[in-house]
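Sat 14:20. Reprocessing the chain from the morning session after the first attempt stalled halfway. Input below, unchanged.
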Amino acid sequence: MKRLAIIFVALALSSCGNKISENSHAEKKPPAAEIIGQEITYPELGVSFSVPTGIQVVQQNWGNNPQEPTLYVMVQSFDDLDDAEKARFMMDKKGAIERAESLKAGKPVAISWAKQDTLQIVHHGESDGIMGLVLSAVEVCDVQFTWQAELYTHDSVIGMNLVYPKEKLIEAVPEYFMTNSSGCGEERVWNFDDNAPDKFIDNLQKGQLPATLLGWKDVFSKILSSVQLNKKASSEASK
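Finished this time. Tokens:
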């Protein structure tokens, strides 16, 4: 099997059947997935992985406040990254290869919005990567509990974002949130005045949060560790 480079970074949980949908962002679509039971396969790229029951799967890079635990996934070949109509990642082929080589060498790479103090180089079998956590992105009203990942094969990049539903997060740990009527209306947002995101991360690392939140990282890790390269596709690519 070809060496696989992995970047973790985000997270979520619940109990409902697997679903999958497509995002028709442009006329030229990235390779589509096939789903049989809990197995997700990208035949064109020779990539497959498993998703636990209860995780909704959506074929796009990111989503906005899903009501269910959701895995956003996008898989593209390095060549497609140089096609303006197909590209879904903020990198070109050259950049993807450089990131993959850095991870293989044990050097961390940046991930958008991930908290710096959660970044961690990880090694799993034949894969290498970096892990981090996103609690807020773009603006102060945004609330997230997302583990992100970028996986690099010999010729493809796999992006994964495992998102925990915002309302379920706030319900589980309401003490970390406040109402910021001056900028966010009646929405509950992170209590930045009390450094809530930093305290949340500290307690997460100490194991002092509800079990469903602590266990979500394990759910994501299982998804990542299930990634496989189709033997036929890999062997043909190496010729």
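The chain has a mean pLDDT of 80.
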